[in-house]
């Protein structure tokens, strides 16, 4: 067999055409597709980087907000406890004042009752004195009116005593 090494050998032509097609497709892809694809990838990379940075910022802000929230809650608890303590103090003071007023009113009522009892006792004494005087005067008056003997005087006194 005779070998032919010519320029127009089908294998060589095929290899040259393959390389030519490759470089043409590479040129077309570089001009029309490669730059837009790289630009889109760059844009996407930038967007992802910004999203990650924003996520980090949001995490930091969230941590700061949590700290502020905890601080506000602690302050609210302290204020609430202070208000409760103040309310208890005021309530205790008010209870002491009410108790003192009640004791004072009770003492006034007791004092008034003692005065009324003493006044009533004095009125009863005066009434008893008046009645005893009238009781003593009545038999004497009878004795003087009748001016009788001793036996009659005794009977008269006894009779007056029974009447009283």
List the helices and strands and how they pair.
Blueprint: H1 10-146, H2 150-163
Name the features:
164 residues, mainly alpha, 2 helices, 92% helix, rod-shaped
Question: What is the percentage of strand-forming residues?
Answer: under 5%
Question: Average pLDDT, to the nearest integer?
Answer: 85
Q: Kindly state the percentage of residues in helix.
A: over 70%
The 3D shape can be described as rod-shaped
Oligomer: single chain
- Spans of at least 5 consecutive residues whose pLDDT stays below 50 are none
Rounded to the nearest angstrom, the radius of gyration is 65 Å
State the major sheet.
none
Number of helical regions? 2
| DSSP, total strands | 0
Class inferred from helices and paired strands: mainly alpha
Overview of this protein structure:
With 164 residues, this protein is mostly helical. It has helices at residues 10-146, 150-163.
Short synopsis of the structure:
The chain has 164 residues and is an all-alpha fold. It has helices at residues 10-146, 150-163. The protein is rod-shaped and about 200 Å long.
